[in-house]
Amino acid sequence: MKILKFGGKSLASGQAFDQVIQIIKDKTEQDTIAVVVSAIGDTTDVLEAILDLAKNQADYHTPFLAFQGKSYHQTIDLKEEFTLLQKLYEGVSLLEDYSLKIKDLILAQGEIISSKVLTHHLLQHGIQAVAVDSRHFFVTDSTFGQAQVQEDLSKAKTSIYFKGLSPQTFAVVTGFIGATEKGETTTLGRNGSNYSAALLANFLQADELQNYTHVDGIYTANPDWVKNAQKIDELHFDDANELAHFGASILHAKTILPLVESNIPLRILNTLNPKNTGTLISSRPTAAGIKSISVQSDIALIQLEGRGLLGIVGIDARIFTALAQAGISVGIISQGSSERGLGFTVEQTKASRAVEVLQKEFQAEFQSKDVDTIHLLPDVAILSIIGQDLTTFDKPYTALVKNKITPLLFHNTVTGKNISLVVRQEDAKKALHVIHGQIFGITKKINLAIFGHGLVGGTLIDQILASATAIAAKKNIALHIFAIGNSKKVWFTETGITANWRQEVAQEGVPYTIEEVISFAKEHHLENLIAIDNTASQAFIEHYIPLVQHGFDLISSNKIANTVSYDFYKTLRKELKANHKEYLYETNVGAGLPLIDTIKLLHLSGENITKIKGIFSGSLSYIFNQYSVQDKPFSTVLQEAIAKGYTEPDPREDLSGNDVGRKLLILARELDLQNELEEIQIENLIPLELQSMDTPTFLAQLEQLNPYFEKIKQALQPDTVLRYVGELSGDLQQDKGILETKLIAVPLHTALGQLQGSDSLFEIYTESYGENPIIIQGAGAGASVTARGVFGDILRLADK
Ligand code: ASP
Ligand code: MG
């Protein structure tokens, strides 16, 4: 025999109701069954609400009429129930009060009506059902509202009652209700029909209890909150108990116990998806490591502190006795070994009462100053991770901290596997995502805000769009861009971007403050945040520190933050450290070439770097590679470089050497040198008289440059070529190094001399590599290699 239980929601809508009938029909063809029902929809709440209106002498007639008028109440004659309810409400309204006994009698009508309505429909479909009132055999004590079932007596009565039923029919039994030996109606506590069903299964020695709900089963996390939560197919009774928060009463110890006792499996099924096999809970051993995360909301944290409590015996007992007497149950408890204070959680609605109770209990200690404070922190949530112990909790925990969520309280069970964290309510959803993602190795979502959508920024966005799917498949990383902006406007998207992003940014971008970006991320519970600066804006770097303080990692191709004052450089790094955030800027020097990372690693590993020398600028590389070997005037070579897009719009920015200087400074600071931009000796290749004119005027007379460079070229020795180099030298163990940029002659056969096209080349000299430098060479400029470099930084961060 199977017991089928249908919850209120399964009976509430027409569609679900039809399914219920279909399910029952199918089951009766395979098996003998008995059905247990809850009240339809939210009937119990409605009946209770009307009761309170009656008590408060408010208008209870209107809602009561509305209740009677419900369409599912029209199909059969419910005069008996409605007349009784009418009388009871009238009485309560007259007395302006009611007892729990009256309340039970009222609420019970919900289940009585429900079993009658369902039975009627089954009969109409030619299915031989009979409505059964459980008050005939569920004998309880007289604790109204929370009655205890007398199991032995009830069992005996149940089996006699069921023997009396015609073998052609099956019972549709009221859940939730029973009666005292005197015949007074009682209820078993809210959501009690799950308990009724478990008891019935036990009494009738059923071989399975099938609990039909509105969800497919038990999940690794609430699927409404976590999209990629997975259904758990099988659970052991022991674990189910820990998961009680999920199915509330379905998995409550009290509900499970009658099943454990007779070893009856419980299957959780979905009325609207009956083909699904649901979650099976039984005594069968299951694969170890079943894990699931639940969240309890509306919790408050109370902390009692006092210097005088140290080592005094009996304080804890007094706390919990006082709370117990006030009917307040305590969740997580935490006490440090110093015993100076005790923290615990209670339901939010009970919190202020709990504080009152404790204030009263410890009145004397307050006076004697042994107790200093009773602190109440409302709006917290408890995340419980079932099946998780401390051996492998390092990753989820680190991920939490990285996402700026520090648990207020941490708790693990001594036996069994269960970890609970108390976090602020506002962090709960994000914490759930982060932990769930870590534990189940599910795709890690990286949320990106990209600033700057010009050449480099735009290319990056397109590159991300093009490879997002492959990255998700290969690395389990989902890259999600939630904001695209420049230094003036931003466009937010909840759903992520499409190939159409340029148009959307142009049409929907709005002026913004960085706080709005931060709030957007917060409101949407976005985790793993990265802000990317592909602007060339000086103003934008002001946002770096606020972003870091609010949980963003940083990536930039913008060089400014690394070359403004050493003060800012230091402060930013201090903030990064304090906030456990990273800042990557591999493209600041040599575009996508793995230069900065290499230098960082060498330096970190204690390798003594003695000198760095190289061609830092792609445009200057091209110009001198050509000019040295070709028999053309300098202006012609420069013109070609401009035409190929190798230079800045005003080529003097390249020829001034400033860009090379900035890059040199970035490398120097990587080696902990504290140089400032002004301290770099920069050779400006623009003759003085051409330095201050406007761009068009300058571009119109490039030949003016020729004599200057012609002279330099004439002085070259045979087999040497010109190169514009940056060089970092000196005693690099000191606070400051020597930083120079200069045009030099180099022998043709050296690495520098062999350079072609617009390549960059860096020679890194270290103590252990001696005279042979490490050489990093390749395309060191251009939008697409730079964007790739930024992309590399994103993946580097995502991997952490
Ligand atoms: N109808 C009752 C309630 O809502 C019992 C149940 O649904 O299990 O609490
Ligand atoms: Mg219910």
Automatic annotation (TrEMBL):
<comment type="subunit">
    <text>Homotetramer.</text>
</comment>
<dbReference type="GO" id="GO:0009088">
    <property type="term" value="P:threonine biosynthetic process"/>
</dbReference>
<dbReference type="InterPro" id="IPR036393">
    <property type="entry name" value="AceGlu_kinase-like_sf"/>
</dbReference>
<dbReference type="InterPro" id="IPR049638">
    <property type="entry name" value="AK-HD"/>
</dbReference>
<dbReference type="InterPro" id="IPR036291">
    <property type="entry name" value="NAD(P)-bd_dom_sf"/>
</dbReference>
<keyword id="KW-0808">Transferase</keyword>
<dbReference type="InterPro" id="IPR019811">
    <property type="entry name" value="HDH_CS"/>
</dbReference>
<dbReference type="Pfam" id="PF22468">
    <property type="entry name" value="ACT_9"/>
</dbReference>
<dbReference type="Pfam" id="PF00696">
    <property type="entry name" value="AA_kinase"/>
</dbReference>
<keyword id="KW-0457">Lysine biosynthesis</keyword>
<dbReference type="GO" id="GO:0009086">
    <property type="term" value="P:methionine biosynthetic process"/>
</dbReference>
<keyword id="KW-0479">Metal-binding</keyword>
<dbReference type="GO" id="GO:0050661">
    <property type="term" value="F:NADP binding"/>
</dbReference>
<dbReference type="GO" id="GO:0009089">
    <property type="term" value="P:lysine biosynthetic process via diaminopimelate"/>
</dbReference>
<dbReference type="InterPro" id="IPR054352">
    <property type="entry name" value="ACT_Aspartokinase"/>
</dbReference>
<dbReference type="InterPro" id="IPR001048">
    <property type="entry name" value="Asp/Glu/Uridylate_kinase"/>
</dbReference>
<keyword id="KW-0791">Threonine biosynthesis</keyword>
<keyword id="KW-0560">Oxidoreductase</keyword>
<keyword id="KW-0547">Nucleotide-binding</keyword>
<keyword id="KW-0028">Amino-acid biosynthesis</keyword>
<dbReference type="InterPro" id="IPR001341">
    <property type="entry name" value="Asp_kinase"/>
</dbReference>
<dbReference type="GO" id="GO:0004412">
    <property type="term" value="F:homoserine dehydrogenase activity"/>
</dbReference>
<dbReference type="GO" id="GO:0005524">
    <property type="term" value="F:ATP binding"/>
</dbReference>
<comment type="pathway">
    <text>Amino-acid biosynthesis; L-threonine biosynthesis; L-threonine from L-aspartate: step 1/5.</text>
</comment>
<comment type="function">
    <text>Bifunctional aspartate kinase and homoserine dehydrogenase that catalyzes the first and the third steps toward the synthesis of lysine, methionine and threonine from aspartate.</text>
</comment>
<comment type="similarity">
    <text>In the N-terminal section; belongs to the aspartokinase family.</text>
</comment>
<dbReference type="InterPro" id="IPR001342">
    <property type="entry name" value="HDH_cat"/>
</dbReference>
<dbReference type="InterPro" id="IPR042199">
    <property type="entry name" value="AsparK_Bifunc_asparK/hSer_DH"/>
</dbReference>
<dbReference type="GO" id="GO:0004072">
    <property type="term" value="F:aspartate kinase activity"/>
</dbReference>
<feature type="domain" description="Aspartate/homoserine dehydrogenase NAD-binding">
    <location>
        <begin position="452"/>
        <end position="586"/>
    </location>
</feature>
<keyword id="KW-0418">Kinase</keyword>
<dbReference type="GO" id="GO:0009090">
    <property type="term" value="P:homoserine biosynthetic process"/>
</dbReference>
<protein>
    <submittedName>
        <fullName>Aspartokinase I/homoserine dehydrogenase I</fullName>
    </submittedName>
</protein>
<keyword id="KW-0915">Sodium</keyword>
<dbReference type="Pfam" id="PF03447">
    <property type="entry name" value="NAD_binding_3"/>
</dbReference>
<comment type="similarity">
    <text>In the C-terminal section; belongs to the homoserine dehydrogenase family.</text>
</comment>
<keyword id="KW-0067">ATP-binding</keyword>
<feature type="domain" description="Aspartokinase ACT">
    <location>
        <begin position="302"/>
        <end position="362"/>
    </location>
</feature>
<keyword id="KW-0486">Methionine biosynthesis</keyword>
<keyword id="KW-0520">NAD</keyword>
<keyword id="KW-0511">Multifunctional enzyme</keyword>
<keyword id="KW-0521">NADP</keyword>
